[in-house]
Amino acid sequence: MKNIALLSCLLASQAAHASPNECLQNFSATQNEALATTYKTQGSFRFVKTDDAFKRVHTFLANNGMSILSIDKENGVISALNEGNDRSGAFNAVIKKGSYGGSIVNLSFNLPAGVLTSNQATQSYFCNLMAAVNKKD
Prior knowledge:
By secondary structure, the chain is α+β, with helices and mostly antiparallel strands. It is built from 4 helices and 6 strands. The protein starts with a helix and ends with a helix.
């Protein structure tokens, strides 16, 4: 009986964090008529406080190729720029309180027409960022 209770706690703990599958399942790439591309995903973190998630997203972006443009901690918004060659892509993260006291992280990356990246590279960046949110300091 003790082992079953321990296993239930372990499974509940694992299910409460954003998984790589959640990051991939929520991933989308859309292209508008002007051929600009928007990538998006979302992750839920039941046991990560919103302030901690915000700090981890900010740290990850600053340490992984993004130039931070603005931070609005009150509204949970971080805007950044990924500069390369002659053009750049706009990156936005919105971190908000989840329904059970944890946090929800929404990511979007907008590339203008003519700027290319692969879905796989963007998914990898997004999912690595989500893993950093889930990691304890």
